[in-house]
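Exam revision sheet. Question 4 asks you to relate a sequence to its structure. Input first:
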Amino acid sequence: MNQTLPDDLTDFLDSLVAEFLANAKNQFLPTGDVPPEAARKKALLKAQQLHQTAFINWQEQNPERLVPCQVVINQIARRLLVPTQDLAKTARQNGFDLFALRKDYPAAPLDILASRLLNLPDPCVITIMDNGHLTSRESNFPLRGKEMFPLEVKVWEQCHKSSRVKKESRLGWVVYAWPVHEVDWKREILRTVVPEIEV
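Answer key, structure tokens:
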């Protein structure tokens, strides 16, 4: 799935959330003491409210550009948990390491934190594997098919078996994999950086 949104819509959502957080004096943002699922639910509820009060006005002004409600609500919720402000700077300072970024955005579930990297200009693919099955694969550029590339499969298998963070690069491609493992359940999140020539 291609996560690219129109630039003006992306800017609108960023401004919408930034204005809300400023008015709330950032007190809306959950702390690390809140379980990720509780934080996700709180963000979704607020996202639905913001969609009903603000985004509908944008849609009325752009009737020819229909965007599914749930897509917009999810994008607002993601921005509430991982605000756009300073995201690019923070991500680069942490080497795009999800585990390091979690310290800056403690309430954000790792899958949402990973998805927010798609809103940065760096071309990449985010893949989520659950118990050995591909459950999500999104990119911020046109991606042909959903099949994983051989290097991605190799790095994923290493991460799945070792329960350790893995990284490997080849011919300009860089693949990172982070394990989110429990006793009876294994999830791996992959970030693939592609060469500019491939985009």
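Marking note for examiners. The chain has two domains: 1-108, 123-199.
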